[in-house]
Design goal:
This protein is an alpha/beta fold. Helices cover about 45% and strands about 10% of the residues. The strands form 3 sheets. Strands 6-5-8-7 form a 4-stranded mixed sheet. Helix 7 (about 170-185) packs antiparallel against helix 8 (about 195-210).
Length: about 300
């Protein structure tokens, strides 16, 4: 996430100067590839995974969108232990031509979008609340709780994102976002550096408020795939919500009028691209799109929003 200020920052709303505080970021010149050593996963780590999974499973079943539910049914993502990357990646490759890339942690924009542009999704094998996580951030205080952490761990990467990549329209959408990010950064249009940074932030805002923290209007037909019917007006498709018990419960409470902590707002791509976010807190707003097809079409028809010329 780019965090250096430039002259175009004044155009954004909801700006927070602490949005990346403490998170370690890996770039192309770092040793970012970190193969999963599946046989080295400890019983403690498997137990943390199981606790996290069991905690969110009822919420996933009741509130998450159809694309995700169907993807979960087709992947070997176990409830009681770490998933094995080598067992999952070939299935995704066969379905939508994506594959998993094991990495050390959060990646720079250049690296992340380059991978996505080549239909590769980065995943880590570290998990919140574990000794490995605590060691990684031993000198820095970041939120490290069962319900939420700003560090993208294995639970967020695999349980939050990967089931969607079994869905062809969604997988193609993610690929197009990656291609656009890669184009912005390669800067073949010759924009000044600050303008490239500004346009990239627009795309990051879009990604954050959609595939990371987006809602879609509930589809009653999806209840056929649930054990318990959705009792709010929205289905969740944001992976950052799906992997966070606290974030999901915040949405449910706000949707039911029990809490006013966060606003639920109609999807507006022009507003979304200009609205910044904070990694370190529960979100203060969520945008609701009419359908997943509306999301894909909106992105394709508004690419000019990401080529601001100053």
């Amino acid at each position: 996430m780019l965090k250096n200020k430039n002259k175009f920052d004044k155009l954004f709303k909801n700006v927070s100067p602490t949005s990346m505080s403490g998170i370690q970021i890996f770039g192309i010149h770092d040793k970012y590839i970190k193969p999963q050593k599946y046989n080295d996963v400890t019983n403690l780590e498997n137990g943390i995974w199981e606790d996290l999974f069991i905690n969110v499973l009822p919420l996933i079943d009741q509130y998450v969108c159809k694309e995700y539910l169907l993807g979960m049914r087709t992947l070997p993502i176990p409830q009681d232990r770490f998933p094995e990357f080598d067992a999952i990646s070939p299935l995704i490759k066969n379905s939508t031509d994506w594959q998993l890339v094991p990495v050390s942690g959060f990646l720079t924009e250049e690296l992340f979008f380059d991978l996505n542009a080549n239909r590769k999704f980065p995943v880590t094998d570290i998990i919140r609340k574990s000794p490995r996580f605590e060691e990684k951030y031993s000198d820095i205080k970041i939120q490290n709780e069962q319900g939420y952490t700003p560090e993208p761990d294995i639970f967020h990467d695999i349980q939050g994102h990967i089931p969607f990549l079994m869905n062809r329209p969604y997988a193609d959408f993610m690929h197009k976002v990656g291609i656009l990010g890669d184009k912005i950064l390669k800067n073949e249009r010759g924009f000044e550096k600050e303008l490239v940074s500004h346009n990239l932030r627009r795309l990051q805002n879009f990604a954050w408020w959609t595939y990371e923290f987006g809602l879609v209007k509930s589809n009653p037909e999806t209840n056929h795939f649930r054990r318990k019917e959705n009792d709010i007006d929205y289905d969740i498709y944001g992976s950052g919500i799906i992997s966070s018990f606290d974030e999901t419960m915040n949405i449910v409470k706000c949707a039911k009028g029990i809490s006013s902590k966060s606003k639920i707002i109609s999807y507006d791509i022009e507003e979304i691209v200009m609205t910044s976010f904070n990694y370190s807190e529960i979100q203060d707003r969520y945008y609701v799109v009419e359908s997943m097809e509306t999301l894909y079409k909106s992105f394709e028809e508004n690419e000019d929003l990401f080529w601001f010329e100053g």
